[in-house]
Write a structure and sequence with these properties.
The protein is α/β, with parallel strands linked by helices. The chain has a single domain, classed as P-loop containing nucleotide triphosphate hydrolases (Rossmann fold), CATH 3.40.50.300. Helices cover 39% and strands 16% of the residues. β6, α7 and β7 form a beta-alpha-beta unit.
Length: 252
């Protein structure tokens, strides 16, 4: 169990806490993310770059050291939300929590005795709508989260003035993740993390993927590719739109 002075240091420096308590050594960009206090963050990352692991560590740090704290994980499917929750639980198992932080939990929810919660939910508008006063909203695989769900979860941050972190690999030029990255990035603290920035992904592996994976640029270089089922490209559709053309029919 850390001393009172160590505990104060760890509360102020989540990177030091991650290294010394969790045994987790984040990459430079992950250190920046762990120390950030930005309200809105978007992560456009290569596959297997460690975005979910870092956010799981961040969620646990806030659950222990910030009060009140309510962390909510949203993902397209239960399997995906469960995966981040599994990382959260693995880190939680490495922490010698003082009695004030002991918890009771279910498979997808943890409640600490200090009142803080950390909950994971699949991509259903109905299953997520009931929550409120969320202080840390983690949207995993955000490029595949339905826009209806995104629009539903945003008001959860209104009263708490909570933080929203979207993390994903691109999935075509569509949806709110692409729109934010393409049109609203200046409103967010943003990270673009290609595979070359991840020391755990080898050059040989990437060379083979480049030759065999048609989605290489999307999966490893953070590129938003055209959807394969579209007749026209995104740029063609955008270029055909104009506010100067009068509509054929009246607009009510």
């Amino acid at each position: 169990m850390p001393s009172a002075s160590d505990d104060l240091t760890y509360s102020l420096d989540p990177v030091l806490w991650a290294k010394e308590v969790l045994g987790y050594r984040p990459d430079p960009w992950q250190e920046k993310l762990l120390r950030s206090r930005s309200k809105k963050i978007i992560l456009n990352c290569s596959r297997q770059s460690g975005k979910s692991t870092t956010c799981a560590a961040l969620g646990l740090h806030e659950s222990i050291y910030r009060h009140p704290s309510f962390g909510l994980v949203i993902a397209p499917t239960q399997d995906q939300s469960s995966e981040l929750m599994l990382k959260f639980d693995e880190f939680r198992g490495a922490v010698e929590l003082p009695s004030a932080y002991m918890s009771t939990d279910t498979k997808l929810a943890v409640r600490f005795s200090n009142g803080n919660r950390f909950v994971a939910r699949p991509g259903s508008e109905k299953s997520a709508r009931s929550f409120s006063a969320v202080t840390l909203l983690l949207e995993d695989e955000a490029s595949r989260v339905l826009d209806d769900l995104y629009n539903t979860i945003r008001p959860m941050l209104a009263v708490s003035n909570g933080r929203h972190i979207l993390m994903s690999t691109p999935f075509g030029k569509r949806g709110h993740f692409f729109k934010i990255w393409n049109e609203q990035r200046d409103l967010f603290e943003w990270y673009e993390i290609p595979a070359e920035m991840c020391p755990r992904i080898t050059k040989d592996f990437l060379e083979e993927e480049k030759r065999t994976n048609p989605w290489f640029e999307q999966e490893y270089h953070c590129k938003f590719l055209e959807t394969i089922d579209g007749v026209f490209t995104f740029d063609q559709v955008s270029g055909a739109m104009s506010n100067e053309v009068e509509p054929l029919f009246g607009v009510e």
